[in-house]
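ok so dumb question maybe but i'm new to this and my supervisor (M.) told me to 'just get the structure for Neutral/alkaline non-lysosomal ceramidase N-terminal domain-containing protein' and walked off. so i did the thing. is this what she meant?? sequence i used:
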Amino acid sequence: MRFASALCVLLSFALHASAGEFSVGFSEVDVTPEVGKKPVYLAGFGQNRKATKVHDPITARAVVMGDGDEKIAFVSVDVIGLFLPSVERIREKVTGFKYILVSATHNHEGPDTLGLWGPTPIQTGIDADYQKKVETGCANAVRAADKARTPATVRIGKASAPELLLDNRKPVVKHDELVVLQFREPKTDKPLGVLVQWNCHPESLDSRNTEVSADFIYYTVKHLRESQKCPVAYFTGTVGGLMTTLKLPIKDEKGKELADGTFEKTERYGRLVGALAEKALKDAAPVTLTPFAIRTQELLVPVENNVYRLAWSFGTLDRTMYSWEGTPTPKKFVATKDIAKPVAVKTEVGYLKLGELEVAAIPGEIYPELVLGKVQNPADPGADFPDAPIEPAIYEQLKGKHRMLIGLANDELGYFIPKRQWDDKAPFCYGLKKSQYGEMNSVGPEAAPIICGAFKELVKGK
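this is what came out, is it supposed to look like this??
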């Protein structure tokens, strides 16, 4: 009896240990559009930019992590963005997960998946069949990554490269930290996969390009797959502000400066980001990613941008609008079709504590000032709201050993601009003759205070 009792205890312990074992799986699904049968409108610059051919594939990449039977998934797809309703449809297709995060790389050389870049400003650029292909591809990538799960150890590395970013809006604040997670097979130390997160607009091919491409991300992933001999998933982080490669001097190996809008510059930049990830991997240290603690908050953000409101009224922006009564978390979200009254969109903010790693899931393009705690103080006298309170910085809320931010997470609401740096009306900041770029692609000045405030409450557990 004593032996049987001891055996039961040992078996119970073994089962518990197995149940808490960390595992990971990677997968990717090709979601490249077919060019030729019907127009493919490329997103990110102007209207009516039709694709003429495919240069490199558009891909949905998934990473599934498990803590025993508890599973979470991260998905990244090479498109301009996905609205929350698309993400909800993807989640509905896959069951058994504690949490699924769906992010877009914000690629400016892929098909329109938001509706803003069609033949005219009042015609959507979305092809319904292609949208379904993207959503199905993301779901299939999650399923395949789940099936590929295997026990793993994890290392985390970081590296900075301010020379690989240009901030084209004053004040100059760069989020120049790359974060990389490397997963390895416990017994053989064989690489199982790499997750890399970097903060830059994939727009190096510029507005003149008409070839479908994942921009520099294709080359970053290719570079790392070749050097690490394993799958690679790329996630976009802090890209507001604007973090870009356009007008950023990039030279080839012989010292020749490469021009914007060329695949030569795009490939060179992508491989430089890959080399930065390799640098981060050299100094990577072991990290524990369990247990999983996930907190999310659905909330309303008012849409004050008149261009977006008109696009919604024309059907170019296809998503539900809600009555805005002045509070992000009303007792009931009330859908509306009355554009004459204040309206809002429903979105989602997330805080993930994965063992020693904290992750901010931000539903748009957040400015580095709001992440790093570098909002201008005092505000420029030309700002529209110079006395607005400074938003709680995202990274100041994260007190753990490691941190990471995933942008365009589960939604795309455009730029989140510090309210006291909002500058849409004359006189303009810094003595400029016109407003800087940014406000035209933001839902409004209240977005940053609401998003940052909601994230602070999530971290506190409220």
